[in-house]
Automatic annotation (TrEMBL):
GO molecular function ontology, one term from the record: DNA binding
Matching SUPFAM superfamilies: DNA clamp
Protein name: DNA polymerase III subunit beta
Keyword S-adenosyl-L-methionine attached: no
Keyword list, A-Z: Cytoplasm, DNA replication, DNA-binding, DNA-directed DNA polymerase, Nucleotidyltransferase, Transferase
Organism, as annotated: Candidatus Kaiserbacteria bacterium RIFCSPLOWO2_02_FULL_55_12
Domain DNA polymerase III beta sliding clamp C-terminal: 149-269
Any single Gene Ontology cellular-component annotation: DNA polymerase III complex
Superkingdom of origin: Bacteria
One GO term of the biological process aspect: DNA strand elongation involved in DNA replication
Cross-referenced Pfam families: DNA_pol3_beta_2, DNA_pol3_beta_3
Signal peptide positions on this chain: none
Family statement drawn from the similarity comment of this UniProt entry: Belongs to the beta sliding clamp family.
DNA-binding recorded as keyword: yes
């Protein structure tokens, strides 16, 4: 029993044997450890976890994929409609490994991580985050992550470079007029160097926004869910965005200009 006493009050709480609490072995392989700032890991988790699937039908898509190789930590999340990849340089270049951590666990862990340096350790079944204040452990997802590199376009039909603040402001205004499917049409006009948004809702009206852009390639129109377009804004601090399209029905590749850490893909909707 646990007894609580305060002033004139007293409470007793029944307990259960502590031997029933499951043991949590710490991953002991020293090769599977890296040291990195907690604030960096927190930002990584919170930025890309929203791109993971919320369905448990395919647990691998409800997870964040981690790959550590050549001194680079690569984190990937996708729900099959959009994909975010972030890369982080590491001081320890000898560690290698791949694992899947459930996205919900990653979000919970991010709220408890310190800002200063911590140790990330992992084995086949779990990963641990160790700091001076304690240790957080998560079981890993036992699944195979799809080879996402295959869907990244290797060629392009058109590329537009726009200011991020202009992209964000125009998108926010246009999305008000999107339909029940949250569809927004994106247009590349290489002759006038204009990148534009268009949305129509039969109950509200329609809206179009044109942005000055540096465009190379051919004219093209694609439609997207505006939520997936706006998600990229939280993933990069770059002042400008590069949007590369490989053609109708192909994913749109978005990067921050000068930001080599980010790769973002979003699949188009039917026109």
């Amino acid at each position: 029993m646990v007894y609580l006493t305060s002033g004139t009050g007293k409470s007793s709480i029944k307990t259960i044997p502590y031997d029933d609490f499951p043991s949590i072995p710490f991953p002991e392989n020293p090769k599977n450890r890296v040291v990195l700032p907690g604030i960096l890991l927190k930002n990584l988790f919170t930025s890309i976890a929203s791109c993971a699937s919320t369905s448990t039908v395919r647990p691998e898509l409800a997870s964040i994929y981690f790959s550590i190789e050549g001194g680079i930590l690569t984190a990937v999340a996708t729900d099959s409609f959009r994909l975010a990849e972030k890369k982080v340089p590491l001081s320890n270049k000898g560690t290698q490994g791949k694992f899947l951590i459930p996205a919900r666990n990653a979000l919970d862990i991010s709220q408890a991580l310190p800002d200063d340096d911590l140790i990330l350790s992992f084995d086949e079944h779990q990963c641990a985050f160790v700091s001076t204040g304690g240790m957080l452990v998560s079981r890993l997802t036992n699944a195979v992550y799809p080879d996402y590199r295959q869907i990244i376009p290797k060629e392009s039909v058109v590329e537009a470079v726009v200011l991020k603040k202009d992209f964000e402001a125009a998108l926010k205004r246009t999305m008000i007029f999107s339909d029940s499917f949250q569809k927004i049409r994106v247009s590349f006009d290489q002759k006038k160097n204009l990148f534009s948004f268009f949305a129509r809702n039969t109950d509200i009206g329609e809206s179009s926004e044109m942005l000055s852009a540096r465009i190379s390639g051919s004219a093209l129109e694609l439609s997207f869910n505006h939520r997936y377009l706006s998600a990229v804004l939280a993933l990069t601090g770059a002042e400008s965005l590069s949007l590369v399209a490989a053609g109708i029905g192909r994913p749109l590749l978005i990067k921050g200009v000068g930001d080599t850490s980010l790769l973002y893909l979003v699949s188009p909707m039917n026109q």
